[in-house]
Amino acid sequence: MVTQITKGIKISVSTSFEGTYFKNYKIHYAFSYQITIENQSKDSVQLTSRHWEIYDALNNIEIVDGEGVVGKKPVIKPGEKHIYNSGCLLASPIGAMKGHYDMINFTSTKSFQVVIPTFKLSAPFALN
């Protein structure tokens, strides 16, 4: 598990290889990940958007920007967590993801970014 804290918001990521998948006559490698967002600050926050950089071993980079996470813009009170699952397809059995969440602090009404630490995606058979 990979963990990082930014401005009192702790991001923890765990990953899993889900298998291979054929799409457009090419093999893809399916990965899932679970992200826990824990508010260790004294203020309530809301996640408003996300930015992802997805890398594979073939030097392909995919940028994904969007509102919220899996259709939600969670409000996370002090001491609470928001956990969600998602996934991605890579053209290679090894890759990585990193990014950030845009959040709003309800006390100060200011926007801020929370770093999503780089986490590796690897199919077990690709490592020896």
Blueprint (SSEs and pairs):
Blueprint: E1 2-6, E2 9-23, E3 26-39, E4 45-56, E5 61-67, E6 75-76, E7 81-90, E8 94-105, E9 111-122
Antiparallel strand pairs: 1-2, 2-3, 3-7, 4-5, 4-6, 4-8, 8-9
Supply database-style keywords:
ApaG_sf, Immunoglobulin-like, mainly beta, 128 residues, 0% helix, four-stranded antiparallel beta sheet, ApaG_domain, ApaG protein, five-stranded antiparallel beta sheet
Task: Give your account of this protein's structure.
- With 128 residues, the chain is an all-beta fold.
- The protein has a single domain (2-126), classed as Sandwich (Immunoglobulin-like).
- Helices cover 0% and strands 70% of the residues.
- The protein contains no helices and nine strands.
- It has strands at 2-6, 9-23, 26-39, 45-56, 61-67, 75-76, 81-90, 94-105, 111-122.
- Strands 4, 5, 6, 8 and 9 form a five-stranded antiparallel β-sheet that branches.
- A hairpin with a 2-residue loop joins strand 2 and strand 3 (26-39).
- The chain is elongated.
- The two termini are 20 Å apart.
Along the chain, the helix and strand elements come as EEEEEEEEE
Total strand segments: 9
Biggest sheet details: 5 strands, antiparallel
- CATH topology grouping: Immunoglobulin-like
**How many structurally independent domains?**
1
Low-confidence stretches: none
Radius of gyration: 16 Å
* The first-level CATH class name: Mainly Beta
Approximately how much helix is present in the residues? under 10%
On the 0-100 scale, what is the average pLDDT?
95
Q: What would you say the CATH architecture is?
A: Sandwich
> Treating each run of at least 4 consecutive H or I residues as one helix, how many helices?
0
